[in-house]
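Why does this matter for the project? Reviewers at the last site visit asked to see concrete outputs rather than summary tables. In response, this paragraph embeds two records directly. Each consists of the residue sequence and, immediately after it, the corresponding structure tokens. Nothing has been edited or filtered.
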Amino acid sequence: MARVLITGSSDGLGLMAGRLLVDQGHSVTLHARNTRRAGDARAALPGADEIFVGDLLSLDGIRSVAGQANAADRFDAVIHNAGIGYREPRRVETADGLSHLFTVNVLAPYLLTALITPPQRLVYLSSGMAHGGDVDLSDPQWTNRRWNGSQAYSDSKLFDILLAFGVARRWPKVLSNSVEPGWVPTKMGGAGAPDDLELAPVTQAWLAVGDDTATVTGRHFYHRQERSVPHDVHDPALQDRFLAYCADLTGTRIPDAR
């Protein structure tokens, strides 16, 4: 039995992955942004062991979730599932003065990775839209560009792959991979999404606990098959610049390998 934490899991793909893992006999901790959504998650998946509460829209909220995780027993795997979609009509700024979308999609998994006692496995939710992303670090916050929600989302999901690969290189004893679940009919994907919803949580659960993925790291998957990614994310220098950028924004760096 593995202990797995899933962020952004009060509904959608995170909850589906949690249900799949509970059904397989694993111990699952869910995460919700507030107590109301935590109650919804408890009702939807009573077999979950615990539910952490914290809003990933703020750096303090992210740190609170990390503190709850470190106060619990060490997790075997963390699935970084929380995310905001591509339909935001304008750039929204958080209380920390950062991009709303970048904070939830990129800084939350970065800071949680940096603060939570490293598990054996890390899984980062990306998207097929990452293949149209740009990892140019000149303006990741979209402060100097005209807002394009679709492009900002695509960029953030490519940054998630860059994060997964950078952590895999920094922490060789931790299995760190990324996943695109497919364009599926969730709240984010929309009712007309054509991909198979039942398959959407399978790959992240497989990477988190699967016996046949016990040595897999620094790779990107779609429906349990490895998928190629833009060449830039394999660049160690770019990975290091990205991690340093996130460290500057959060005041917290990814620790050295343990």
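We now turn to the second protein, recorded in exactly the same manner.
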Amino acid sequence: MTPFKRFFDFISVIALGTVLLPVMIWVAILIAVRDGRPIFYVAERMRTPTEAFGLIKFRTMRPSADDSGVSGAHKADRLTRTGEMLRRTRLDELPQIINVLKGDISLVGPRPPLRQYVERFPAIYAEVLKSRPGITGLATLYFHEHEEYLLSRCDGAAQTDRVYATRCVPRKAHIDLIYQRNRSFCYDWEIMLKTVFKRLR
């Protein structure tokens, strides 16, 4: 990540934080009242092929000791009363601005992957993770809804893993590398604005 991109992320998050803080407080109170604690969920994700970090989200599921892998239909029964709404509106991702402030991720970039897929597909992620992962990105805009559709049709954890590994990982990587070849300050702005307008719709 270039110093300019890091500076842009930092200034943008400070500005966004003043607007988003009341929303985040409201969501935190809503989760505490309706679903109880914990309010946040910290998931291991990879910043580089060898460096992990804790990605912070609002909790949308009931905790499970054996939770692992991507979320598909087999985890739907664990969604909390508030979780479905938070996922639909992507409000569960608001705490990730803390990760941006820490430098773990950027505002725009490939979504940070799980360790198990980075280890299974080292050649793919050696290229994809040359870009700092982000809250949103080109693949988020153009593949996220299709990914959710594919995973929602899976029956069990094994099928979810197989579909994600064979149908999602390569397609998202292809889109992420298109971003990588064309990334610029203006392109990041375009992706962020399209993300906002898509959420508002």
